[in-house]
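Write out the 3D structure for:
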Amino acid sequence: MTTIALTIAGSDPSGGAGIQADLKTFSALGAYGMSVITALTAQSTQGVDDVLAISPQFVEAQFNTLYQDINIDSVKIGMLMNKEIVSMVYHLLKNNPINNIVLDTVMVAKGGHRLLKSDAVTAIREKLLPLATVITPNLPEAAALLDCDEASNENDMLKQGQALLKLGCQAVLMKGGHLPGHESPDYLITHDEIITMSSPRIQTKNTHGTGCTLSAAIAALLPQRSLAQAVKQAKDYLYGAISHADDLSIGKGIGPTHHFYQWW
């Protein structure tokens, strides 16, 4: 059966991140994609110029319209903008359960523009983390969620992942892309095991939307696989998309990954 995946996230009109990247990823991995938009952005490969939050009530209207009609197998949560939207998403998922929830703790865009207000970090930590099947923070996001210094080595990275797990989620995928070195180490941490998944670094500037793409890939794959299998396959897909990013020539700044590298 076809997996039906929902993204709850912000819109990126340049197509490299946000719901646009999520829907491309869902399609590339054989899932039927739907979206609930939480924010509109004016952005390109050169950065974010402006952001407009959608009202929590309209976020609710979008979700309810879909949930009442369509069976949703998984949900990826991305940019939520403020604590009011975080609270609404919590309310919706608490009262309308979905089995597979992938939480991408989006806080800052590649160009440095803040995409999450500071008071929303606490709301995500207290409300959404306990609902998540897996969260996918990078090192700055993990530090913000734990209110501590950013990990500077793999040992600290692992400890922070274990601390996040204690906040109530079922699993943590700690992404080590911010650490130095030729390899980019990730740790999948559950209550039962720790799995190391490292990938060689790819020399390209075109990495816009990599976090969105990875979390969306996990959401697309998770309903029909174990968590470890879904994460491994999602990472393989992202590695291919980044490896072929330079095949595209999009914009003057940080370009997107190539979501359809297997077909174009």
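Residues 13 and 155 are 38 Å apart (CA to CA).
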